[in-house]
Amino acid sequence: MFRYLLRRLNLFLATSLVMIGVLFYATGLFPVERTFALTGIHSPTASQLIQIEQDYKLDSNGFMQFIAYLQQRLSGNLGVSVTSHQSVTEELGTVLPASFELAVMAAVIAIGLGVPLGVLASQSQHKLTQNTIMAITLTGYSVPVFWLGLYLSLWFGVDLGWLPISGQLNLLYEIKPVTGFMLVDILLSDSEYRISAFKDALLHIVLPATTLAVLPFTVVVRSTRSAMMNVMNQTFIRAAEARGMHTNTIILRHALPNALIPVLKHLGLMLGSFASYAIVVEMIFSWPGVGSWLVSGIYQRDYTVIQGGILAVALLIIFLSILIEVLHTVFNPLSRKDLYASN
Amino acid sequence: MPLLDVRNLTIELDTPHGRVRALEKVSLTLNAGEIHGLVGESGSGRSLLARAILGIPGPNWTITADRMMWDGNNLMAMTSKERRNLMGSDMAMIFQDPSGSLDPSQTVGSQLMQAMPKNPKAYFWQKHKHAKLTAQKWLHKVGIKNPQKVMSSYAWELSEGECQKVMIAMAIANQPRLLIADEPTNSMELSTQAQIFRLLSQLNQLQNVSILIISHELETLAQWCDHLSVLYCGQVMESGPTEELINQPYHPYTKALLDNMPDYSGIEAHKAIMPTLPGSAPALQHLPIGCRLGPRCPEAQKKCVNQPSLSHLRDRYFACHFPYHGETTNDDPTA
């Protein structure tokens, strides 16, 4: 097991290194002054210029420059934003939690609704129920997110007026950021409007989270269903029945744990597309997260923000996919069997 | 009163080729405390019969029977919930694929502890320990030497024999009165097979568990069973006490099975053709009418296109129009 974890860590480091290498190469291709692209300082003073050349070793060869670049980036120096003149690291610190909040909500919706519905679809004997669920998930799978997001905000936000369509919180409320997670911060604050602010924040998150949840939800339903159908035909389910266990107990204790393992794998494979979905959703609902921050950075030719955003998002995706693979191994004793065999 | 009494059980399967009678008018009587063997080729519907008796039918089955009595209670009239309750406590079953019968994602111990009978007197904080101790006790009883290690392993870390012992422990922990063993020793080496059979017969003697063993090995069954039923293509050919049945088969199929058994005495010439019945067992879509052995039967006549009903001579039952009776066997040159 230790050897396995070491190899996964190795994989993470190697992939990240390649990714940073590509980023370093791309930085050189920006159609601006190299010092500007690296630091975001538009017209540096003489002393700043010397400092930059020292930091990034601009007078040595490419390899040494990459080492210096790596050193700067890994120590948290992502330069300053061209437009806001603030440190990119600090800006990342404020936008990342907002994205996390949205992603967690979407994941809760997708898994919380998707798994029961998938189980239901696999257990139902009626062709009609099965086909209905399959038709709905196929529609959800194929509908483009930008269209869906716009129409949801048009229907529920504009026409019906039930839900707010942009932002994270109404401007009326002033909440001091502590953790960066809005819902947590509201509960932590001692404002007298805490409860109504919390309600408002919840209302704000409904539309973006639902839109973002549609794709993972359909993936979860479909893969849960197929995995459950597969598992329910196996001998150990027959054996559990023969022991007189109740069908619900069998599903919860034996079928579902085995069925969720391939679901986890599916989700891990789709992580990249979920991330690009999240960027589009954040743009549509002006959610102050990494996605909209990155896209506005791209619009404004904010080279340091582009680098910082890509670095953060790519590192996260690499980390999460490896984490999911490790979790898959932890929860699936059968994959450990292969592991023993290979070592 | 017999423990289990099944009369004219018919199972029809809905297949893409239409409805098929996989089991036709099968009768089976099982007395308390006996070991009953069910012999048949693969595909003869032995497992279907076992699952129908236990009450875990597949989704495309239609089961009809004149009578299905369990200890004086009508199984046909019970709701599925009552059947399920019966399964855990009075009837139990072990399967032919023991390692596949255990959940691969849970340790053997946790599954075993779930199957252990609950102690109503224990407080909830004692329940875990109690279940663990009972599980170890039962593992010890079925002949597993290191219960602790087996309980913390996963099913794929154990051998087939060990898995089958675990399955037996689970099945008998609730002290059932009938244990259905569906090819319990399939894919095991001979010494393990012997261990499992010895264990089953011990259970029968010590706990008075009735056992229904399903197998295709007539020799092995003849060694361990009190009664035998011979199944061919979903029809009962013959059933009766093992000794009498082996010594003097009434039915041509049983006789063919016994005659064609290789005796390993080495008298046969090298590469000699082994004697078998001509032809092979028909596919379920192309079943012959009447007695299904008809086309292959050495004694078949015109009358055999009607299915013979199960007739009996003392405690022997057979379904044949032309049985090898006591009187006729003397004239039979092949006997």
Give a brief description.
Chain A: Residues 96-328 form the ABC transmembrane type-1 domain. Chain A has 343 residues and is mostly helical.
Q: What portion of residues of chain A is helical?
A: over 70%
- Count of structural domains of chain A: 2
Output the strand order for the largest sheet of chain B: 7-8-9-3-10-11-13-12
DSSP helix count of chain A? 15
Give the low-confidence spans of chain A.
none
> For the report, how would you describe the main beta sheet of chain B?
8 strands, mixed
CATH class descriptor name of the largest domain in chain A: Mainly Alpha
CATH-defined fold name of the largest domain in chain A:
MetI-like fold
Please indicate the count of domains of chain B.
Answer: 2
Overall, the morphology of chain B is: globular
Distance separating the two termini of chain A: 10 Å
Distinct helical segment count of chain B: 11
Q: Low-confidence stretches of chain B at least 5 residues in length (pLDDT < 50)?
A: 327-335
Question: Mean pLDDT of chain A, rounded to whole units?
Answer: 87
Rg for CA atoms of chain A: 24 Å
The backbone outline of chain A, from C-alpha atoms, is globular
Domain ABC transporter (chain B): 4-258
Subcellular location (chain B): Cell inner membrane
Protein name (chain B): ATP-binding cassette domain-containing protein
Pfam families (chain B): ABC_tran, oligo_HPY
Overview of the molecule:
- Chain B: It holds the Pfam family ABC_tran.
- Chain B: This is ATP-binding cassette domain-containing protein.
- The complex is a heterodimer of chains A (343) and B (335).
- With 343 residues, chain A is an all-alpha fold.
- Chain A folds into two domains: 2-74, no CATH class; 88-342, MetI-like fold, CATH 1.10.3720.10.
- Chain A has 15 helices and no strands.
- The longest helix of chain A has 39 residues, at 194-232.
- The termini of chain A are close together.
- The model of chain A has no long low-confidence stretch (mean pLDDT 87).
- In chain B, helix 3 (108-115) crosses helix 4 (124-141) and helix 4 crosses helix 6 (160-173).
- Chain B folds into two domains: 1-89 and 176-261 and 273-289 and 296-323, P-loop containing nucleotide triphosphate hydrolases (Rossmann fold); 100-174, no CATH class.
- Chain B has 335 residues and is of the alpha/beta class.
- Chain B contains eleven helices and 13 strands.
- The two termini of chain B are 36 Å apart.
- Chain B has helices at residues 46-54, 80-89, 108-115, 124-141, 147-151, 160-173, 190-207, 218-224, 242-247, 252-259, 326-331, and strands spanning 4-15, 18-30, 35-40, 61-64, 67-70, 73-74, 91-94, 178-182, 210-215, 227-232, 235-241, 311-313, 316-318.
- Helices cover 33% and strands 22% of the residues of chain B.
- In chain B, a hairpin with a 2-residue loop joins strand 10 and strand 11 (235-241).
- Chains A and B meet through helix 10, helix 11 and helix 15 of A and helix 2 and helix 6 of B.
